[in-house]
Amino acid sequence: MTIDITFLGTGTSHGVPVIGCSCPVCTSRDPRDQRYRSSILIQTEGRNLLVDTGPEFRLQALRAGITRLDAVLYTHDHADHLNGIDDLRVFTHDATLPVYGNQRLVDCIGNRFGYVLGRCEFAGGLPHLRATVLEGTAPAFVAGIEVQPVPIRHGDLTIFGYRIGNFAYLTDCSGIPDDSWRLLDGLEVLVIGALRRKPHPTHFSVGQAVEAAQRIGAKQTYLTHLCHESRHQELDESLPGSIHVAYDTLRLHVSG
Asked: At the topology level of CATH, where does 2-138+145-246 sit?
């Protein structure tokens, strides 16, 4: 199996630049310091799997040239990972699009965006989605691809990271439960959230993300979900050799 990863966004909930902010990162001319809300596109076995639909999903899809989706994996229900859901409608003209997440995520879609699940009699211009609950650590076949949910902590919440083959994506992570470490053995590429250098109650700091990455031992690790306190070049140059800072539009190729 070969996997191609496109970073559609690598920013935190505010995005970067932050509205009204004139800090060095928000005013940087380095395009790698401009970060849409975090999301990735996974392409493997002729399938396109999206992880999360943040508020800029339409812009991300146009920038990446996405013309087809086979499924959407959701990490959790926070606005910066979910609120672009309406823009999935262009991918549902001919068929219902399957979306996956934990029970809280599926309930949230039903409560906040119930019209996307066929509950509205007037169907014109609406997304047509089919939501499926993923249970714990049970692997699932999503569009014919085996996906391993990886429960992680996000403050008081348990959310999902995902592993496909030798690639894993753990955004918005503040802790890894004991039973989840084994699900991350033997990775070629790990993507993990690293909000900022200072501690935060619901996200790994850079130091915590580096420590977790070194314990996991992937051949290469990329940090994502970065706030405007981290300038790309300075942070990247400060990291161990196998750990890098991701940026919007970065593409990775994962083999095995």
From this structure: Metallo-beta-lactamase; Chain A (3.60.15)
